[in-house]
Amino acid sequence: MSGTLNLVEVAPGTALTLRDGRTVIVTDNPGDGMWVFCRDPDGTDESPVYAGEVAGLADTAKPQG
Questions:
Q1: CA 22 to chain centre
Q2: Which helix (H) or strand (E) holds 57?
Q3: Using one digit for the tens of pLDDT, what is the confidence trace for 34-59?
Q4: Which H or E run contains 53?
Q5: Which residues have CB under 8 Å from 24's CB, separation 6+?
Q6: What are phi and psi for residue 59, nearest 5 degrees?
């Protein structure tokens, strides 16, 4: 991804790639630009992800809605 990802605008359902190589799905976004809540694509456990952990949008990223 080129440019900067604005986490404030990331919608639930969007797939993100993390710096460690994992892909996660956004489940909730408080809109503070610092944190999003995510789950692994095959999981149900939600965990917070800090903005610094996010590498960018995953190739398959498509907001659901």
A1: 11
A2: strand 54-57
A3: 999 999 999 888 999 999 999 999 98
A4: none
A5: 15, 16, 18, 38, 39, 40, 41, 49
A6: -55, -30
